[in-house]
Amino acid sequence: MKWLHQILFLLLLASAAASCKKFLNVEPADRTGSNSFWKTRQDVEAAVINCYGFLFQKFNDFNSPVIPAVGDMRCGGIGGSIASGQLGQGFYTLSQNDLSNTTNLGVPERYHLNDIDDWGPYFESIANCNITLAEIEKMTTLTDTEKKQYITEVKFVRAFTYFYICRLYGDVPFYTQPYDKTPRPRTSFITIFNTLIAELDAVKDDLPWTATNPSDLGVRACRGSVYTLIAQMNMWLAGFDKANQSKYWKDAAEKCVAVKNSGAFELLPIEETKRIFKGKTKESIFEFELNRNYGNTSLYVNLGQWMTHSPIVDYGGNSDLYFVRPLMERIYPPNLPDKRRDTWFYLPYSNNQTFMFLKQINVADPTGYWSFEDNLMVFRYADVLLLGAEALANLGSNNTEAISMLNTVRTRAGTPLFTAGAEDLKDAVFWERQKELIGEGHRWYDFVRTGRVTDPNQIITPMTQDQFDRGAWTWPIDAKARQNNPEIVLNLYWIR
């Protein structure tokens, strides 16, 4: 951390001149001096875009399956051929939530799963945001409206980074000032989230509900994405700060209902799945762009890339991985109609590698060393509707609105609507999120924050309450985090 801020400022200046359309590539350009930077609106635009790039680089670095590994694989219910060399004993170990030796899981090295232990790049992103915010505040060539919008965008990126790493590692050091080299201990994520919610609440209306430029839809923060992030943090807090649950549920519900009432977002037909996950639609609230025209594709970033075979890709007759039949039957009961099951899966109950997951199949190159360009979907409108329904159901104060939001998603899916008394509303919303968001990196976190991760009737890989309390829901932290910060205590549950 001591060297981090010094390097980042120079790197920011060097990379910020890159084309806006290529903002996901954090590459140095020919501008390394501050004398020629932070002068114009174009300089600020480049710097703000670069904030997104620092974060996305971690998600797509080395084509590592960060999102599916931490968000879906840990839930269990994933099978594959150990002999194939693709799944390996390591992916099975991961699906059992055994992270006691992530440096030697047995997963082929090219998948870089051991890199998930390294939280350093996330703090590079945070430091970059802190510097950018400080510089924007000093700018005199921006209008008040421009300055507010840019500041809100960067605060969103910083808050999202903290949201992501706190769900992954638990408590983390909290930095909000530029060039702060202080070795800080880990701060309670409850404190961090409450601080960030207050910060975002103060600026949440400084952006339009959605992007006015179609090329920015979803890939730039908007009011909808700020409201959604606040709601997400509230729902996470409700799971851990139980004394204040009602407050968190109320705020989350208000934010989700506001997004719905804005009229800025809509659900596209399930039949348009490829367009939804190619991105930049009215269903998208926040996403990271993958586009081969800009030099951005991935091999492993989305879970669907592990669960396809010919004729989708030129890769033989088997998928590397598949969802096991007990999981598929639990999420998508065979006796109930569901367009998602019929559209997103091939041989959904096969329980073998003939299975395919067809939710993310925008293939950039189907031959040879194939790659995909489905955008990395972070928040979708369906997610917001179901999150709002969950918050309202927990409050019990407006079940009519909760049922309406739930049934909006079910109507699009062509599955039976919820009717009071036929199902428990809270359970119905939870399992609807499992159906709707499968493969998008939400499932593990939904199990953790709701406490269902300890219920063997709910999750295939449960943990005991004692294991949960000792931090079994977190991811290990690499010991090198202590090299420049002796204040850091690692996640002790994973230290053997």
From TrEMBL:
Q: Where in the cell is it found?
A: Cell outer membrane
Gene3D superfamilies associated with the record: 1.25.40.390
Question: RagB/SusD domain spans which residues?
Answer: 351-494
**InterPro entries hit by this protein:** SusD-like_N, SusD_RagB_dom, TPR-like_helical_dom_sf
Keywords of this protein's UniProt record, alphabetized? Cell outer membrane, Membrane, Signal
Which terms in the GO cellular component ontology are assigned?
Answer: cell outer membrane
Check the UniProt entry and state the signal peptide residues, or none. Answer: 1-20
Q: Report domain SusD-like N-terminal positions.
A: 115-230
Q: What is its main location?
A: membrane
What superkingdom heads the lineage? Bacteria
Report the family membership. Belongs to the SusD family.
Query: Under which name does UniProt file this protein?
Result: Starch-binding associating with outer membrane
What is the native source organism of this protein? Niabella drilacis (strain DSM 25811 / CCM 8410 / CCUG 62505 / LMG 26954 / E90)
